[in-house]
Amino acid sequence: MVYKIILMDNPIEGYFLITNEGLIFEIKGNLHPEYQYIAYLRYVFDTSGDRNSEDGVAYKKIYPLKDREVYLRENYPHYLRFDDRHNRVLQVIPFDSIDFVLSPIDALGRIRDRGRHLSDLQRATLELAESLVDAFGIPWNAIGVTGSQLVGLATESSDIDLVVYGEKAGRTLHQGLKKNDETIAGLERYTGKHLLQHTQFRWGLNNQHLKTLSSIESNKLLQGIFDNKEFFIRIVKTSDEMEFVYEDLSFESLGTRVLTCDILDDSQAIFTPCEYQVECRGVPDLVSLVSYRGRYTEHVGKGMCVKTRGTLERVNHRDGRSWLQLILGESSTDYLLPCST
Fold it and tell me: Which residue segment(s) compose the domain that 248 sits in?
Protein backbone atom coordinates (compact mmCIF):
# COMPACT_ATOMS: atom_id res chain seq x y z
CA MET A 1 0.00 0.00 0.00
CA VAL A 2 2.85 2.42 0.81
CA TYR A 3 6.50 2.94 0.03
CA LYS A 4 9.29 3.73 2.47
CA ILE A 5 10.09 7.44 2.52
CA ILE A 6 12.34 8.86 -0.19
CA LEU A 7 13.31 12.34 1.00
CA MET A 8 14.32 13.46 -2.50
CA ASP A 9 10.68 13.07 -3.54
CA ASN A 10 9.89 16.57 -2.15
CA PRO A 11 6.29 15.88 -1.00
CA ILE A 12 3.83 18.77 -1.10
CA GLU A 13 0.05 19.33 -0.86
CA GLY A 14 -1.83 16.10 -1.62
CA TYR A 15 0.80 13.78 -0.12
CA PHE A 16 0.18 12.07 3.21
CA LEU A 17 2.61 11.04 5.96
CA ILE A 18 2.49 8.14 8.39
CA THR A 19 4.46 8.78 11.57
CA ASN A 20 6.42 6.24 13.56
CA GLU A 21 3.40 5.98 15.91
CA GLY A 22 1.04 5.23 12.99
CA LEU A 23 -0.70 8.63 12.93
CA ILE A 24 -1.73 9.82 9.47
CA PHE A 25 -1.14 13.45 8.46
CA GLU A 26 -1.88 15.38 5.26
CA ILE A 27 0.82 17.73 4.00
CA LYS A 28 -0.36 21.31 3.57
CA GLY A 29 1.06 23.81 1.11
CA ASN A 30 4.06 23.88 -1.21
CA LEU A 31 6.78 25.33 1.04
CA HIS A 32 8.21 23.70 4.16
CA PRO A 33 10.97 24.30 6.72
CA GLU A 34 14.22 22.38 6.45
CA TYR A 35 14.04 18.71 7.52
CA GLN A 36 10.33 18.82 8.40
CA TYR A 37 6.87 19.16 6.89
CA ILE A 38 3.88 21.28 7.85
CA ALA A 39 1.10 18.70 7.94
CA TYR A 40 -2.34 18.40 9.58
CA LEU A 41 -3.46 15.35 11.50
CA ARG A 42 -6.19 13.46 9.59
CA TYR A 43 -6.62 9.88 10.90
CA VAL A 44 -5.91 8.37 14.33
CA PHE A 45 -6.22 4.94 15.94
CA ASP A 46 -9.65 4.30 17.43
CA THR A 47 -11.11 0.86 18.18
CA SER A 48 -14.59 2.26 17.51
CA GLY A 49 -13.50 4.04 14.32
CA ASP A 50 -15.40 3.46 11.07
CA ARG A 51 -12.29 3.19 8.87
CA ASN A 52 -10.28 -0.02 8.69
CA SER A 53 -6.90 -0.56 7.09
CA GLU A 54 -6.08 -3.64 5.02
CA ASP A 55 -4.49 -5.24 8.09
CA GLY A 56 -7.61 -4.62 10.21
CA VAL A 57 -6.53 -1.59 12.23
CA ALA A 58 -9.45 0.75 13.04
CA TYR A 59 -9.08 4.50 12.52
CA LYS A 60 -11.27 7.54 12.86
CA LYS A 61 -11.09 10.73 10.82
CA ILE A 62 -10.72 14.04 12.63
CA TYR A 63 -12.11 16.83 10.47
CA PRO A 64 -12.29 20.19 12.33
CA LEU A 65 -8.86 21.84 12.51
CA LYS A 66 -9.37 22.75 16.16
CA ASP A 67 -10.12 19.13 17.07
CA ARG A 68 -6.92 17.99 15.40
CA GLU A 69 -4.85 20.39 17.49
CA VAL A 70 -6.63 19.37 20.70
CA TYR A 71 -5.99 15.68 19.99
CA LEU A 72 -2.28 16.29 19.45
CA ARG A 73 -1.98 18.52 22.49
CA GLU A 74 -3.50 15.77 24.65
CA ASN A 75 -1.68 12.81 23.11
CA TYR A 76 1.29 13.79 20.90
CA PRO A 77 2.27 17.35 21.84
CA HIS A 78 5.72 17.01 20.22
CA TYR A 79 4.02 17.47 16.83
CA LEU A 80 2.88 20.95 17.85
CA ARG A 81 5.74 23.39 17.46
CA PHE A 82 6.03 27.13 17.70
CA ASP A 83 7.27 28.30 14.31
CA ASP A 84 9.36 31.49 14.48
CA ARG A 85 8.53 32.45 10.91
CA HIS A 86 4.78 32.00 11.22
CA ASN A 87 4.91 33.30 14.80
CA ARG A 88 2.42 30.69 16.02
CA VAL A 89 2.02 26.98 16.78
CA LEU A 90 1.92 24.68 13.74
CA GLN A 91 1.47 20.95 13.26
CA VAL A 92 4.94 19.93 12.10
CA ILE A 93 6.43 16.50 11.35
CA PRO A 94 10.25 16.18 11.46
CA PHE A 95 11.84 13.83 8.94
CA ASP A 96 13.01 11.45 11.67
CA SER A 97 9.39 10.97 12.85
CA ILE A 98 8.19 9.79 9.43
CA ASP A 99 7.73 6.10 8.71
CA PHE A 100 6.13 6.40 5.25
CA VAL A 101 5.37 9.06 2.65
CA LEU A 102 2.35 8.28 0.49
CA SER A 103 2.47 9.66 -3.06
CA PRO A 104 -0.79 10.44 -4.92
CA ILE A 105 0.80 9.71 -8.30
CA ASP A 106 2.13 6.33 -7.15
CA ALA A 107 -1.26 5.47 -5.64
CA LEU A 108 -3.13 6.16 -8.88
CA GLY A 109 -0.52 4.14 -10.74
CA ARG A 110 -1.20 1.15 -8.48
CA ILE A 111 -4.93 1.45 -9.17
CA ARG A 112 -4.18 1.40 -12.92
CA ASP A 113 -2.02 -1.70 -12.44
CA ARG A 114 -4.81 -3.66 -10.72
CA GLY A 115 -6.65 -4.20 -13.99
CA ARG A 116 -10.14 -5.61 -13.41
CA HIS A 117 -9.61 -6.15 -9.67
CA LEU A 118 -11.05 -2.82 -8.59
CA SER A 119 -13.69 -1.71 -6.14
CA ASP A 120 -16.51 0.48 -7.48
CA LEU A 121 -14.80 3.54 -6.01
CA GLN A 122 -11.45 2.67 -7.57
CA ARG A 123 -13.08 2.01 -10.93
CA ALA A 124 -14.87 5.38 -10.88
CA THR A 125 -11.66 7.11 -9.78
CA LEU A 126 -9.69 5.55 -12.63
CA GLU A 127 -12.39 6.34 -15.18
CA LEU A 128 -12.46 10.00 -14.15
CA ALA A 129 -8.66 10.26 -14.24
CA GLU A 130 -8.52 8.56 -17.65
CA SER A 131 -11.20 10.92 -18.98
CA LEU A 132 -9.22 13.98 -17.83
CA VAL A 133 -6.01 12.63 -19.33
CA ASP A 134 -7.66 11.78 -22.65
CA ALA A 135 -9.70 15.00 -22.94
CA PHE A 136 -7.07 17.53 -21.89
CA GLY A 137 -3.73 15.83 -22.45
CA ILE A 138 -2.69 15.84 -18.80
CA PRO A 139 0.36 13.57 -18.36
CA TRP A 140 -0.07 10.59 -16.07
CA ASN A 141 2.91 11.74 -13.99
CA ALA A 142 0.99 14.93 -13.11
CA ILE A 143 -2.23 13.39 -11.76
CA GLY A 144 -2.84 11.36 -8.63
CA VAL A 145 -5.36 10.21 -6.06
CA THR A 146 -5.33 11.61 -2.53
CA GLY A 147 -7.55 11.51 0.55
CA SER A 148 -8.86 8.28 2.03
CA GLN A 149 -7.98 6.19 -1.04
CA LEU A 150 -4.35 7.23 -0.80
CA VAL A 151 -4.07 6.05 2.81
CA GLY A 152 -6.05 2.84 2.29
CA LEU A 153 -9.00 3.86 4.48
CA ALA A 154 -11.69 4.49 1.87
CA THR A 155 -15.21 3.13 2.04
CA GLU A 156 -17.59 2.78 -0.88
CA SER A 157 -19.22 6.04 0.21
CA SER A 158 -15.90 7.90 0.06
CA ASP A 159 -15.32 10.75 -2.39
CA ILE A 160 -13.05 10.71 -5.42
CA ASP A 161 -10.17 13.01 -4.47
CA LEU A 162 -7.82 13.77 -7.35
CA VAL A 163 -4.82 16.08 -7.43
CA VAL A 164 -3.20 17.60 -10.52
CA TYR A 165 0.37 18.87 -10.14
CA GLY A 166 1.88 21.77 -12.06
CA GLU A 167 0.54 25.11 -13.23
CA LYS A 168 0.45 24.19 -16.93
CA ALA A 169 -1.47 20.94 -16.42
CA GLY A 170 -3.81 22.61 -13.92
CA ARG A 171 -4.66 25.55 -16.15
CA THR A 172 -5.17 23.26 -19.13
CA LEU A 173 -7.61 21.18 -17.10
CA HIS A 174 -9.55 24.14 -15.74
CA GLN A 175 -9.77 25.93 -19.09
CA GLY A 176 -11.00 22.73 -20.72
CA LEU A 177 -13.75 22.30 -18.13
CA LYS A 178 -14.63 25.98 -18.37
CA LYS A 179 -15.14 25.78 -22.12
CA ASN A 180 -17.34 22.71 -21.84
CA ASP A 181 -17.63 20.61 -18.70
CA GLU A 182 -19.81 18.18 -20.68
CA THR A 183 -16.60 17.03 -22.40
CA ILE A 184 -16.31 14.45 -19.61
CA ALA A 185 -19.18 11.96 -19.91
CA GLY A 186 -20.91 11.36 -16.58
CA LEU A 187 -19.52 14.47 -14.91
CA GLU A 188 -22.14 16.71 -13.28
CA ARG A 189 -22.06 19.85 -11.18
CA TYR A 190 -23.78 19.85 -7.80
CA THR A 191 -27.54 20.38 -8.06
CA GLY A 192 -30.66 19.68 -6.01
CA LYS A 193 -30.28 17.69 -2.81
CA HIS A 194 -26.61 16.92 -3.53
CA LEU A 195 -25.90 20.66 -3.70
CA LEU A 196 -27.74 21.34 -0.45
CA GLN A 197 -25.97 18.52 1.39
CA HIS A 198 -22.59 19.54 0.03
CA THR A 199 -23.08 23.20 0.97
CA GLN A 200 -24.32 22.38 4.47
CA PHE A 201 -21.35 20.06 5.07
CA ARG A 202 -18.80 22.56 3.80
CA TRP A 203 -20.28 25.74 5.29
CA GLY A 204 -22.40 24.49 8.19
CA LEU A 205 -21.63 27.41 10.51
CA ASN A 206 -22.67 29.95 7.87
CA ASN A 207 -26.27 28.78 7.52
CA GLN A 208 -27.58 32.33 7.25
CA HIS A 209 -25.82 32.56 3.87
CA LEU A 210 -26.79 29.10 2.65
CA LYS A 211 -28.59 30.33 -0.49
CA THR A 212 -25.64 32.45 -1.62
CA LEU A 213 -23.11 29.75 -0.81
CA SER A 214 -25.16 27.13 -2.66
CA SER A 215 -25.10 29.34 -5.74
CA ILE A 216 -21.33 29.72 -5.48
CA GLU A 217 -20.78 25.98 -4.97
CA SER A 218 -23.00 25.08 -7.93
CA ASN A 219 -20.72 27.00 -10.33
CA LYS A 220 -17.41 25.47 -9.28
CA LEU A 221 -15.81 23.27 -11.93
CA LEU A 222 -13.36 21.28 -9.82
CA GLN A 223 -16.04 19.44 -7.85
CA GLY A 224 -19.33 17.68 -8.40
CA ILE A 225 -20.69 14.22 -9.13
CA PHE A 226 -19.12 11.51 -11.30
CA ASP A 227 -20.67 8.06 -11.65
CA ASN A 228 -22.89 8.79 -8.62
CA LYS A 229 -19.86 9.64 -6.47
CA GLU A 230 -18.78 13.05 -5.25
CA PHE A 231 -15.42 14.26 -6.56
CA PHE A 232 -13.00 17.07 -5.85
CA ILE A 233 -9.96 17.95 -7.97
CA ARG A 234 -7.12 19.82 -6.28
CA ILE A 235 -4.66 21.75 -8.48
CA VAL A 236 -1.26 22.25 -6.85
CA LYS A 237 1.77 24.14 -8.06
CA THR A 238 5.08 22.36 -7.66
CA SER A 239 7.68 23.82 -5.30
CA ASP A 240 9.86 25.10 -8.13
CA GLU A 241 6.90 27.08 -9.49
CA MET A 242 6.58 29.09 -6.29
CA GLU A 243 7.79 32.69 -6.12
CA PHE A 244 9.36 32.22 -2.67
CA VAL A 245 11.16 29.60 -0.62
CA TYR A 246 10.16 28.97 2.99
CA GLU A 247 13.06 30.92 4.46
CA ASP A 248 12.19 34.08 2.49
CA LEU A 249 9.14 35.01 4.57
CA SER A 250 8.11 35.65 8.15
CA PHE A 251 4.61 36.41 9.40
CA GLU A 252 3.03 38.47 12.16
CA SER A 253 -0.59 37.81 13.13
CA LEU A 254 -2.68 40.96 13.58
CA GLY A 255 -5.86 39.23 14.72
CA THR A 256 -9.25 38.51 13.21
CA ARG A 257 -10.68 41.12 10.84
CA VAL A 258 -13.92 41.58 8.92
CA LEU A 259 -13.20 43.52 5.73
CA THR A 260 -14.73 44.71 2.48
CA CYS A 261 -12.52 44.31 -0.59
CA ASP A 262 -12.56 44.44 -4.38
CA ILE A 263 -11.14 41.45 -6.25
CA LEU A 264 -8.46 42.71 -8.67
CA ASP A 265 -7.11 39.35 -9.86
CA ASP A 266 -8.46 35.79 -9.52
CA SER A 267 -5.85 34.04 -11.68
CA GLN A 268 -4.58 32.03 -8.67
CA ALA A 269 -8.05 31.03 -7.48
CA ILE A 270 -7.96 27.52 -8.98
CA PHE A 271 -4.95 26.38 -6.96
CA THR A 272 -4.55 24.93 -3.48
CA PRO A 273 -3.40 27.05 -1.70
CA CYS A 274 -5.49 29.70 -3.48
CA GLU A 275 -5.00 33.46 -3.61
CA TYR A 276 -7.02 36.51 -4.65
CA GLN A 277 -5.35 39.88 -5.27
CA VAL A 278 -7.45 42.62 -3.67
CA GLU A 279 -7.85 46.27 -2.92
CA CYS A 280 -9.33 46.81 0.52
CA ARG A 281 -11.16 49.83 1.80
CA GLY A 282 -9.50 51.14 4.93
CA VAL A 283 -6.52 48.73 4.78
CA PRO A 284 -4.35 49.99 1.88
CA ASP A 285 -1.46 47.58 2.56
CA LEU A 286 -3.68 44.49 2.15
CA VAL A 287 -2.78 42.86 -1.16
CA SER A 288 -4.30 39.37 -1.05
CA LEU A 289 -6.75 36.87 0.41
CA VAL A 290 -5.08 33.47 0.90
CA SER A 291 -6.45 30.07 1.89
CA TYR A 292 -4.99 26.60 2.34
CA ARG A 293 -8.52 25.14 2.36
CA GLY A 294 -10.00 23.76 -0.87
CA ARG A 295 -13.39 25.27 -0.06
CA TYR A 296 -12.14 28.73 -1.07
CA THR A 297 -10.95 27.76 -4.57
CA GLU A 298 -13.00 29.17 -7.49
CA HIS A 299 -15.03 31.05 -4.92
CA VAL A 300 -15.21 34.64 -6.16
CA GLY A 301 -14.13 36.40 -9.34
CA LYS A 302 -12.29 39.43 -10.65
CA GLY A 303 -14.29 42.65 -10.41
CA MET A 304 -16.43 41.51 -7.49
CA CYS A 305 -16.88 43.36 -4.23
CA VAL A 306 -16.62 40.90 -1.33
CA LYS A 307 -17.13 40.78 2.41
CA THR A 308 -14.70 38.52 4.21
CA ARG A 309 -13.59 37.38 7.64
CA GLY A 310 -10.17 35.92 8.38
CA THR A 311 -6.86 36.38 10.14
CA LEU A 312 -4.86 39.43 9.12
CA GLU A 313 -1.11 38.81 8.75
CA ARG A 314 1.82 41.06 8.03
CA VAL A 315 4.25 39.32 5.69
CA ASN A 316 7.91 40.34 5.86
CA HIS A 317 10.32 39.36 3.09
CA ARG A 318 13.98 39.07 3.97
CA ASP A 319 14.75 41.55 1.18
CA GLY A 320 12.94 44.23 3.21
CA ARG A 321 9.53 44.21 1.54
CA SER A 322 6.39 44.03 3.67
CA TRP A 323 2.67 43.62 2.94
CA LEU A 324 -0.59 42.40 4.47
CA GLN A 325 -2.63 39.30 3.62
CA LEU A 326 -5.85 37.87 5.04
CA ILE A 327 -5.80 34.13 5.76
CA LEU A 328 -9.15 32.38 5.28
CA GLY A 329 -10.17 29.01 6.69
CA GLU A 330 -8.27 28.75 9.95
CA SER A 331 -11.54 29.34 11.81
CA SER A 332 -14.84 27.61 11.01
CA THR A 333 -16.51 31.02 11.17
CA ASP A 334 -14.38 32.57 8.39
CA TYR A 335 -16.22 33.48 5.19
CA LEU A 336 -15.91 35.06 1.75
CA LEU A 337 -19.15 36.43 0.29
CA PRO A 338 -20.32 38.88 -2.38
CA CYS A 339 -21.09 42.34 -1.00
CA SER A 340 -24.73 42.04 -2.07
CA THR A 341 -25.26 39.25 0.46
Answer: 243-338
